[in-house]
């Protein structure tokens, strides 16, 4: 009987996951909401190198609940944040940097009139749209805060 309880505790503790210092846990991932700003490319470099040995990337948004969580944090912090998608490879086709998957999110995630195209190729979450349709495309050279993501361990 004690052995079964012990196994149950081990399974539970590994499933709950832990995050590196400075990261916030949500679901199976850990998120770092930067106080620093950078370009889209520079922000990805920070995510992938600054938290050694943790490997992180600009966030890849995979669900409505994850999008809502990130949007609420952006509203609380009153900041715009880079996320990990762009159409730098093929104009008009946004892909997630980490997985390479095409962004197939519903249009409700994009702010009205977005994406605009032109010289705007990198995706950000903005806090001032009033709803969770908070994605915009913007020039990759803008200086924005950023969100890094890594799996909970």
Automatic annotation (TrEMBL):
It comes from the Eukaryota. Pfam families: Lectin_C (PF00059). InterPro entries: C-type_lectin-like, C-type_lectin-like/link_sf, C-type_lectin/snaclec_domain, C-type_lectin_CS, CTDL_fold. PANTHER family: MANNOSE, PHOSPHOLIPASE, LECTIN RECEPTOR RELATED (PTHR22803). Residues 1-17 form the signal peptide. It comes from Dreissena polymorpha. Keywords: Disulfide bond, Signal. Residues 26-149 form the C-type lectin domain. Gene3D superfamilies: Mannose-Binding Protein A, subunit A. This is C-type lectin domain-containing protein.
């Amino acid at each position: 009987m004690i052995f079964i309880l012990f196994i149950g505790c081990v399974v539970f503790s590994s499933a709950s996951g832990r995050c590196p210092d400075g990261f916030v846990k949500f679901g199976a991932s850990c998120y770092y909401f930067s106080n620093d700003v950078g370009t889209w490319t520079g922000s990805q470099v920070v995510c992938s190198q600054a938290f050694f040995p943790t490997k992180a990337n600009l966030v890849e948004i995979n669900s409505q609940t994850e999008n809502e969580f990130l949007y609420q944090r952006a509203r609380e912090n009153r900041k715009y944040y880079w996320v990990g998608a762009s159409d730098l490879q093929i104009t008009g086709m946004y892909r997630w940097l980490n997985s390479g998957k095409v962004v197939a999110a519903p249009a409700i995630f994009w702010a009205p009139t977005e994406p605009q195209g032109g010289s705007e190729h990198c995706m950000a979450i903005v806090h001032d749209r009033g709803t969770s349709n908070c994605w915009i495309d913007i020039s990759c050279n803008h200086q924005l805060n950023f969100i890094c993501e890594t799996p909970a361990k």
